Amino acid sequence: MGALDELTRPAADGDHVGGVPARLVASPGSTAEAAALIAAARELTVVIRGAGTKVHWGPPPRALDLIIDTRRLAGIVEHAAGDLITVVRAGTPLADLSLGDQQLVLDGPAGATVGGTVAANTSGPLRLRYGTVRDLLIGITVVRPDGKVARSGGKVVKNVAGYDLGKLFTGSYGTLGLITECAFRLHPVAAARVYVRAAAPASVVAAVLSAQVVPSAIELDSATGEVAVLLEGTPAGVRDRASVVEKLIGGELSEQAPAWWGVPPWHPDGIGMKLSVPKSRVPALAESGFPVRGSAGTGVLYAAPRDITEVERLRALCVRNAGHAVVLTAPPPVRDILDMWGPVPGLALMRRIKDQFDPGRRFAPGRFVGGI
Question: How is the beta sheet containing 192-199 ordered, strand by strand?
Answer without folding.
Answer: 252-254, 192-199, 226-233, 217-221, 292-295, 300-303, 272-276, 324-329
